[in-house]
Every structure is written in C-alpha cells, then in structure tokens.
C-alpha cells in the first residue's frame, strides 16, 4: 500500500516537473521572438491593447472606435494629417516619402502626421513590421484592425469609396478628405490650405 | 486698332474662363459613374479566351453580377474563391458573374492580359474575365477600386443598377462574415423584393489608370 502511494506521488511530481519544463521552454521561445516584435496580447483578442514594437517605435493596433476617439476627433490646436495606406498598395508606398517629408518639416509647427495601416491582420508580422523597420518610418504608425469596413469607411468621410491611398487633413476648424495620391507640393498645399482656411 | 487689341485680350480671357469650368465638369462626370436605378450602357470587351463579350449577350438572363477585380490586389485575391462560388451559386439562378480587370498593366504587370489568361485557367474560372484594355468601361460604371461590385437587373428597359459595393462584410476572413451584402441583394432581386442595403463601402486597391 505504502509502495503504491509512493509511486503515485512520484508520478505526480514527475508530471509536474515535465510540464513546468515545457512551459518554461515556451516562455523562452516567446522571449526570443519578442526582441523583434512584442505583442502584449494574442491574436484571438484583437480588441485589447496590442502594441507592436519596431526598434524604439511603438505601433499600436486599434479598432475603428479607438481610432475615431484617439486620432480622428481631436479638438486641440494641432492639425492632423491622417493617411490611410498599406504595404500592398503601390501608390501608397510611392507617396509615403512625401508624408515623411511633411512630418519632418512641420512636426514642430503643430502638425502631426499619422499613418494608418490597413494591412491584412495576418500580414502585420511578415509585412508591416519589416516595412516600417526597413523604411525607418518616423511618422506615427497605427495598425487599424477592423474588418467591418462598411461601418467605418463612411465615418472617415461620406465621400470615400474605400480606395486607398486616402488622406484626411483636419484641425478643430477645418476637415478635408482626399481620395487621391499626392506629390509633396500637392500635399503641402493641402496642408497649408487647412491651416489657413 | 487699339480697340482690336483690347477686344482680342478680352475674348482670350473669356475663352480661358469658359475652358476651366468645363474641364472640371468633365472630370466630375467621369468620376461619378452609375448610381442605383441607372440604366447601363452596353459594353464589349475581350475575354481571356480571346472572344469578345458584350453585356447585351446576357439580355436573356435575370441579371448579371459585374465585378471589377484583378490579379494583383490582395483584396481581390482574398475574394477570388468567393467570386467563383458566387458564379457557381447564381449562374444557375439566372444571375451569372462577369469579372472585369480595369487596371493598366504598364503600371501593374501582374494584371496583363496574358497573366489574366493564366490566372483564369489555373483557377478554373467559370465566368468571363474581361480586360478593360482601353480603360473606357470602368469610368462609365464609376468603379474606383478592386474588387468593386455592380449588380445589374435585366428589365424591359435593359440593364438597371440594383446594388453597388462590397461582396460581404469581412474581406480578411470568409469564415467570419456576418452579412453577405451581395447575396442578400441578389436574393431580394430574384424574389422581386426591395433590396435593403443598396450600397456598401469596402477598402480596395485603387484602379491603376
């Protein structure tokens, strides 16, 4: 009888050790990948605060209601240039340097450039994050993960068909939406128009 | 003589003024395209089998699902198998699919006619995949992106636009779709009911002109 109890306890202990061991291995694994991308949450819970880290840059994931609250409806003294883009969109990628240049030129003049990525949720790690790293994007990047597009596209602008690139330039006084590509000159004049209007 | 000079300057100025608004007007006209209830103009484009296909070839059908799509756009790719399923489901009910690639292949080589032929063959498209080579059809529809869907009902007056927009409410994941906008519209049309949601918006790749 004592022998049986002894073996039982031994087995339980062994199972305990093995499972501890495997879980600590898994932790090691996640730490390894987290040098590149820290994901504070799993993909099964997209509504919670997922933040991708690219070098020193933080790229938060948002659904539309969060984006609307935090990015599209500010009423401070800043002017916001919000560009909707994706790594798969060639004309978007082509005009990104103009947004970067605008950000560099105007960031100290109460202007904030925000690049809202519409990449596919399963391509963030493999395409968006490497792209941001490779291009060393300086403007703020947000990953919008919200599949219910018919719901949120008209909230950005009634005139938006859904094609990208698209850009919203606004401050507390003026709000203009552009479904088009920009040259730097066009972009700068669109910004100054919003500033002056 | 001086009067002539002044007059010519004035007339040039008037001419210039007359030109500016008219070009702006034309631009708006092209960008506008069809709205719900519009009758559509017939069009003829080359299919991947090198034969010409006209909308009027489909006059005996109840309607047609016209989808502007392409090889290269990730959203078009995400919807490709759903587009194939739509044709399988609705061709039998008298509402087949016509796919049209509106992109300029000099900008997107992946969308060339040859690549369209390859893709249609490899995937086994059961519907025509037409090439808007001169880019004259998509502006008439007012398509701005791929995929962009127009449901046309054949009536005594010809084809009438009944629904414009997206296929469903989740491009990323077909298994997570909650509302099948296009199927709902086709079903309502076939039942002679009012289509509840006549237009929807979705993200897509801008058409490469």
From TrEMBL, chain B:
Note the superkingdom of the native organism: Bacteria
Mind telling me which SUPFAM superfamilies this protein's record contains?
Answer: Thioredoxin-like
What PROSITE patterns does the annotation carry?
A: THIOREDOXIN_2
GO terms, molecular function: antioxidant activity; oxidoreductase activity
The record's listing under Pfam families reads: AhpC-TSA
Q: Which residues form the Thioredoxin domain?
A: 34-191
> What is the name attached to this protein's record?
Thioredoxin domain-containing protein
Q: Which organism is it from?
A: Neptunitalea chrysea
């Amino acid at each position: 009888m004592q022998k049986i109890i002894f073996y039982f306890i031994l087995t339980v202990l062994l199972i305990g050790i093995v499972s501890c061991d495997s879980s600590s291995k898994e932790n090691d694994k996640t730490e390894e990948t987290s040098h590149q991308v820290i994901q504070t949450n799993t993909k099964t819970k997209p509504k919670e605060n997922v933040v991708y880290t690219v070098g020193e840059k933080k790229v938060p994931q948002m659904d539309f209601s969060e984006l609307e609250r935090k990015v599209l409806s500010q009423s401070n003294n800043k002017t916001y240039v919000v560009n909707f883009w994706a790594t798969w969109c060639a004309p978007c990628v082509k005009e990104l340097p103009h947004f970067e240049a605008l950000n560099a030129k105007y960031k100290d003049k109460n202007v904030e450039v925000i690049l809202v990525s519409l990449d596919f949720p399963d391509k963030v790690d493999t395409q968006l994050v490497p792209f941001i790293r490779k291009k060393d994007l300086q403007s703020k990047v947000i990953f919008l993960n919200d599949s219910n597009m018919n719901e949120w596209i008209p909230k950005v602008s009634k005139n938006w068909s859904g094609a990208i690139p698209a850009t919203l330039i606004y401050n507390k006084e003026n709000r203009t939406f552009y479904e088009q590509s920009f040259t730097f000159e066009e972009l700068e004049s669109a910004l100054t128009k919003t500033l002056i209007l | 003589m001086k009067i002539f000079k002044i007059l010519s300057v004035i007339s040039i100025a008037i001419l210039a003024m007359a030109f500016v608004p008219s070009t702006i007007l034309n631009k708006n006209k092209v960008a506008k395209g069809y709205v719900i209830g519009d009758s559509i103009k017939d069009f003829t484009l080359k299919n991947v089998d090198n034969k010409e296909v006209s909308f009027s070839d489909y006059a005996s059908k109840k309607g047609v699902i016209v989808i502007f799509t392409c090889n290269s756009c990730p959203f078009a790719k995400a919807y490709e198998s759903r587009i194939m399923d739509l044709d399988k489901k609705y061709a039998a009910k008298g509402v087949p699919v016509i796919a049209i690639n509106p992109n300029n292949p000099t900008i997107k080589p992946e969308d060339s006619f040859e690549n369209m032929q390859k893709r249609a063959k490899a995937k086994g498209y059961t519907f025509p995949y037409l090439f808007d080579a001169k880019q004259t059809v998509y502006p008439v529809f007012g398509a701005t992106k791929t995929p962009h869907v127009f449901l046309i009902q054949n009536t005594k007056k010809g084809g009438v636009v009944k629904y414009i927009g997206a296929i469903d409410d989740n491009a990323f994941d077909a298994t997570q779709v909650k509302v099948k906008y296009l199927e709902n519209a086709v079903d309502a049309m076939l039942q002679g009911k009012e289509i509840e949601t006549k237009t929807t918006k979705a993200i897509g790749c801008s058409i490469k002109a």
